[in-house]
Every structure is written in structure tokens, then in C-alpha cells.
Amino acid sequence: MKKVFLIPVAQHDSTFYIGKYDPRKLVKMTDPTIDVNTLQEAQRPLDKKHLQEIADYASHDKQGMLPSSILIASKDTDKLVLKTETSAGENKYYIEFPDSDVELANYANTIDVIDGQHRLFAFDEKYRDPDFKDSEKYELPFSIFITPSIFVRRKLFTTTNEKQKAVSPNLLLYLKSMLGMLDSAEEAYLPLVNAMNDENMSPLKGRIIISAEKISKGYKAKELIKIFNKAKLADIKINGNPITNEQLVKALSIYIQGWESHYQLSFKSPGKETMTKISGLRYITLLFETFFDHSINTQKAFDVTFVKTVIQELENAKQLDEGQTLFDDSVLFRGEGATVKLATDDANMLKSYLASKATNSFNPLA
Questions:
Q1: pLDDT band at 164 (very low <50, low <70, confident <90, very high)
Q2: Which of 131, 151, 225, 232 lies in disulfide reach of 60, CB 3.0 to 4.6 Å?
Q3: pLDDT of residue 212
Q4: Contact criterion met (CB below 8 Å) for 97 and 2
Q5: In angstroms, what CA-CA distances link 75 with 29, 39, 145?
Q6: How high is the pLDDT of residue 80?
Q7: Burial of 244: CB neighbours in 10 Å, binned 0-12, 13-18, 19+
Q8: d(Cα 1, Cα 356) in Å, to the nearest integer?
Q9: What pLDDT is stored for residue 180 in this prediction?
Q10: 140 near 67, Cβ under 8 Å?
């Protein structure tokens, strides 16, 4: 057993204690039946992706730090007992924590995690970097409550999470880029987002929120990365070769300009129209590959005139009346899922319509 000294903290009529311990050992003291999607009494279910993200961040290679305390509670009155000793005339508080493998096995399910469970469970061997050896020093700060009731545990969890104001995902994206902590989609598309915000040819120049800056009706970098990834822009090829970032910036700029010209709208000066909202930008981006492939297949220059022509073909395929637009049914743009489905359906419809025109609806079996 290892003596872990604690600092008492009194708030109103309650006292909890602050300490530190190896999270690789601490996680073995939790309920071993808890896994991803397990319903818990006073916690949200674990998210596997989030667990792996933290595990990768805290790995031997990334050297990530987790300085904020987790909240835990002891469960057994006979184990993890709070004790005191006197040293130099001062009372010191401590709890004896299990240290060896045998002791840890005997202390399984002796703590509950009130807050910070993803930070702790990321040190489970299922997620931990194999190169992150037990001999490598790593401590995690914790605040421990001594055998609180389920009511108190639920209250602590609710208060801790309800009173927090979430940090902007966009700001986190910016900080991750500075720290070299981007995920694969962010690595692939953040350079494209930055270029679309900087290049003079881009209709989105100066309109993208890269960090936490205030831009009226701006487009968040985090959301654009998600859209570009959904559209699989990085998978597009020209003559069998992957499209470069420079080529994508040029093609996307021309493409968006085509939509602007067709509907006489502007992404630099957006109004209330659906097309220039993030939902409209999602829709047209998801159609980009269909337009671009048609340019290659027909060997026609991918310019504003070409884009406008294909937009008209899509309107014809959908049998829109004069004065109608592709964005008139606002219900289809209220939710991401509905917009993605609309774009997928319209892309398939456009492909069929263009193929039918190219063959003059020829039926070899007629």
C-alpha cells in the first residue's frame, strides 16, 4: 500500500480532499464492468472516440499533460479510509492506496468517478499507448469525497457540468493546430480552410472564423472542415492524380463564384437567403464532386459559365418552375442530416439526367 497525503478543503458544511496518484493504477480501482455505452448511476456513458483522443494526447510520444483534477468518491467504508498523523505538530491527512497488482485487484470497484471519467479511463490498457510504460512517471490530480450518497454524487456531477461554459470548438481547433494535435480530418482540411480564407480569388476570403474572432454571419473553420471531409474533397483526382490543395482552392473558388453568379448572391455579403448560410454552403459543397467529374468527363473547362450551366441542368432535372430555386424548401436545410440527404439525392438525380442527355435517352433493348 502507498500512503497518499491529502489537502482538506472545506466548503460550507462539507469537506473533500485533494491528492494525486498514478492514473494507470487509479483506473484499476473503478468498477471493472464499466465500458463504452454502460449506463451509470451518476455519469454519462463513456465515448470510445473521446477516450482514444485523450489516450493519444497523453501518450509517450505526445507528452500531453492533464493538469485539472478529476472528482472521485470512495465507496467502501472499510477501504480507502481517511487517516491522520501528526508531523512537526501538524495534522496530516492521508489514505492508503493500493500499489501492487495484488492490492489493486483487491481494491477494484472501490471508487466512483464523479467528473473526469474520460481522462481517467483513457489510462485503461485498452486505450493506452503501448510505449507508455508503467515506469514512466505520470500523476493525475484528484479531489476525493469520502463515501458520499448517490444523491450527493449526482448533484456534484450535475453542478460541475451544468455550470461549465463550453470552450468554442473553433478556438480549440486553433489551439490544437498550434500544438500539433490535429486529428486526421483536421490535418487534411485545415490548410484548405486557411487558404480559402486568405486567397484573393476565394469568395470566402475574410469570412471564415479561424479562432474566436467575431465575424458577422461568418463560417466556422471547424464546421467547414467537417463539410469538406464529408464531401471527401481530398479524394478527388485529376487524370489519376490526387488533386492538390492549390487546385482545390482554385476549383472551389470558381465553383462558389458560379453559384453566386447564377443566383445573384454573395458569400462575402450574405443576407437572409439560405444559400449563403452554412446549410447552403454544405449543400453546394456536397455537390462539388459531381460538377467537377462532369467537367472532366465532358472535357469542358471548369469555369463560372460551366458551373452555371450545370446548376441550370440540376434545376431542369428537378423540374423547377421559372423563379424557383434549389433552396426554396427551407425545411430541407434546417438539419444537417436532411441537407446531406438532399445533396446526395440531387447529385444522383443530376448524374442520371446528364447521362440521359448525353445518350439522347438511347435504349439498346427497345
A1: low
A2: 131
A3: 83
A4: yes
A5: 10, 18, 9
A6: 95
A7: exposed
A8: 77
A9: 80
A10: no
Rounded to whole angstroms, the Cα distance separating 161 from 167 reads 13
Grid cell listed for 144: 476525493
- Taking CA atoms, 165 is separated from 161, 168, 169, 233, 312, in Å, by 9, 9, 12, 33, 46
DSSP 234-263: GG-EETTEEPPHHHHHHHHHHHHHHHHHHH
Instruction: List the beta bridge partners of residue 113.
Output: 72
* 333 to 77, 105, 263, 282, 317: CA distances (angstroms): 56, 53, 17, 9, 20
Residues 6 or more apart whose CB falls under 8 angstroms from that of 167 comprise: none
Identify whether the C-beta of residue 104 lies closer than 8 Å to the C-beta of residue 89. Answer: no
Q: How far is CA 206 from CA 105, 200, 209, 220, 269, in A?
A: 57, 9, 8, 11, 11
The secondary structure of 3-70 as a DSSP string is EEEEEEEEETTEEEEEEEE-HHHHGGGS-TT--BT---SSSPPB-HHHHHHHHHHTSTTT-----SPE
Residue 166 pLDDT > 70, yes or no? no
Q: What is the pLDDT of residue 124?
A: 94
Residue 299 has pLDDT above 70, yes or no: yes
Provide mean pLDDT across the span 53-70. 90
